[in-house]
Amino acid sequence: MTAERLLEGLNPTQREAVAYGEGPLLVLAGAGSGKTRVLTHRVAHLIGRGAAEPFEITAVTFTNKAAREMRERAASLIDAGPGLGGAFVGTFHRWALDILRRWPEAAGLPRRFSIIDSDDQRGLMVKILKDEGLDPKEYPARNVLSRISGHVNRLESVKKLERRTDDIRIQVVARLWRRYTARKKELGAVDFDDMLALVLKALSSDQAVAASVKRRARWLLVDEFQDTNKLQMKLLNTVLSETGNITAVGDEDQSIYRWRGAEMDNILDFEHSFPGAHVVALERNYRSTAPILRVSGALIASNTRRRGKKLFTEKDGGEPVHLFIAPGEREEARWVCDRIEALQTSHPLGEMAVLMRTNAQTRPFEEELTRRQVPYRVVGGLRFWQRAEVKDALAYLRLVVRPEDALAFERVVNVPARGIGAVTIDALRSHAEAVGRPVPIAARDTPETLTPRAQVALGRFFEILDEAETQRETMAPADFVGWLLEASGLLGLYDGEEEEKVVRRENLRQLATAVAEASLQGQDLEAFLDGVALFEDSDQKTSADAVSLMTLHSAKGLEFDAVFVAGCEDGLLPHANSQKDAEGLEEERRLAYVGMTRARHRLALTAARERFLFGQRLTTRPSRFLAEIPADSLQDDSDAFSQIVGQSWGLEAAAMVQGPQRSFGRQTGLGRPQSTGSVGAGPSQSRSPQRSVRGRPIAATVEDADGKGWRPGDRVSHQRFGSGVVLSCQGRGPGLKLVIYFDRAGRKTLVPTIAKLEKG
DNA sequence: CCTGTGCCTGTTTTT
DNA sequence: CAGGCACAGG
Asked: What's the pTM value of the predicted model, to 2 decimals?
């Protein structure tokens, strides 16, 4: 397409962004303002007007989904085929991995290195903790790892940490960090953070590498800029050309990865970091109706950390945003499904989505949709590649590709069970250490310290691997995978007709299919495994006509005709773990905003007054976000009872969410007060609505030292932690401890008399 | 050395 | 409710 044609059909601000010349450019792209359009057109326009050769363009995104879309759309504009004439369009991690695979030695990596996922990371850290004799409760592996990750992403060194001699815990983390780094080096493995950090290392240690990468990044484009962290920012700065041709596209209102190190300052202070930067704001929204924009705009206006922009639409009219407050999560799902079925006549199922804060929330929706035989798909969630049987199969493949892969070896040397247990593995490890070689290589010596039985078993295992090596030469990749699944005995593990086994066999079959597809696209096994490590989904076009269920995080960048944001309850959205500081709360608000702005025509917000949490039925409270939306912008579809209740539960109550909160039964006078001062299972308890737990025994009341009765489900308030709900009671009398889930502070265990707990 | 059972605890979001 | 983990028995 010619350069002029590319500007046609764009609005003035879009055109300005697309046609802008050299130097830093920040495009503030509100939700639905044509961000991808601008990005892809800019890529095409750079080439079309002769400013750039395709291979001088590097465009990075955060998700594979976004990368794929950008690639496809750009390809259709520049008619250079799917290869984009050599332009790089992909995720940060793919970009990094390409560099590391090409120049591993510049980054200090072995020629063949492997990538470890978060499970592997955890496994390594657990071992290190054991080794150090540390209490895993005091130093949870995941926690330690996320702290390390935070340091890496903030460009902080171990040395800096070690200087913090005032804090023993920090010292411990520093030591663990060192050991973790050393362990990865031994294994020839890199984690996600390493990928980016090591590219930085390669760029600074090797001028030739730096020159090559920089040449290809002469025009640098960055999507979702609001989610970049310090490390990524440094990386961008390092490869940036002298003319500073960076195009950053983003929206601070959609920054949702603070927990992963995202620095909103990168977008808020862009002009400061890149002097002379040109800023274009895209505020015209093409996606949503006016009511949807009004509601989402009202919500996000409560945030303080923003540059501030106001989206507008030229579209008139539109369905009002609906609100539905259900008695429980089953009813919530039922209502949503009613709506979905009603909308089905005018919208394809693929254009509808139910969005929620946590993955666990999909359950009732899946059940309800299944019952009604409405096709759905869960996006993200328990990932295909993360399933145990798939990871086992991948471990075999990794061993074939990289025989020295110790992690893969240890994972499957005894899968299926061959009589190689912990004792044998330990012996192999010490032997490996003695000869100074990786475990899987050293294990070939079949050391005599092993029991005869283990020696034989190990021999058989290596026979399989050896044969695999020969088979691989003669077979097509997919056939080879099929053969390996059979020969390894993995498939045999799931013989039988039980549901679970059938599913697992099916998953393994799908893996083989994925390999076949990859090889059709010219990928060999190595490339396939890399793609898997980066979570690149093999299912290219999930155009299936099915309702989408997914988290708010996964929904970013997508759009649907109809969107349901479910679980608008305090502690869930905003999530209890993110309410400790104002920053966390603002991010939750952005998350809700992202969800709402996915909708084109219809948006509904739903909540449940009771919900299963920690295996118990608990009374919930409304999301404070509901109170931040003008009531006249919402159409309350709750049933008559819920509407009365909703007045206090849903809207007014949310407004006073900071203060002490009474349970809904009391406020409305529809239920009886909950066991105030009364002890034992009196009649009042079984009559109040939230007590009637579906077919489950009603928890007994337990007295504290003052004779006050407590039991699971009671709402309580605490001076510091605010309000919450009792999960369980331990002991009685003076020794009574209550496990409480606080809406804001999360889970705590308290002695009621000491903590001065109050009811309500 | 493997497997099964029962207890316990923890539950956010993802490249 | 679920997954992880420790322990006991085969």
From this structure: 0.84
